Amino acid sequence: MKKLLLTTLTVFAFSAQADYLDGAHNWNTGSSDPFKAAITAAETDYATALAASMAWRDTGKMIKEAHKLQTSGDTAAALAVAKAAHNQAVNALSQAAVAGSAGPRF
User: Fold this and answer.
1) Can you tell me the distance from the alpha carbon of 37 to that of 17, in angstroms, rounded to the nearest whole number?
2) Which of 41, 46, 47, 98 has the fewest CB neighbours in a 10 Å radius?
3) In angstroms, what is the C-alpha Rg of the chain?
4) At 102, is the secondary structure helix, strand, or coil?
5) Hey, is 82 helix, strand or coil?
6) Cα separation, 57 vs 36, whole angstroms
7) How far apart (Å, rounded) are the C-alpha atoms in residues 26 and 21?
8) How far apart are CA 100 and CA 105, in angstroms?
9) Within its chain, how far is the Cα of 93 from the centroid?
10) 40-77 burial by CB neighbour count: b if 16+ within 10 A, else e?
11) Whose CA is closest to 31, among 89, 82, 106?
12) Mean pLDDT for each 10-residue chunk of the chain (106 residues)?
């Protein structure tokens, strides 16, 4: 009985957290072009990270590289780089949120 209860509670806990991320991280804006959606989300989050002075070093370079790959016709690589740039921008925003409360704990 304990195993059944534990399994049921575990499944419930995982299903409750399945939709944990809010709508701000849903970067698919309904566009039929996945590259356009990914690069727009990356640029938007990167601009927000720049405004918070917490942008990561290579994110801007990755966005430029994604645009260059898209114009050269390598859409699969451009999409991969755009998604990686978006991931870096989201992580930079998370780091900015945590850095506001950083300090020594005595």
Assistant:
1) 25
2) 98
3) 19
4) coil
5) helix
6) 22
7) 8
8) 14
9) 9
10) bbbbebbebbeeeebbbeebbebbebbbebbeeeeeee
11) 82
12) 70 59 53 85 93 91 95 93 94 87 77
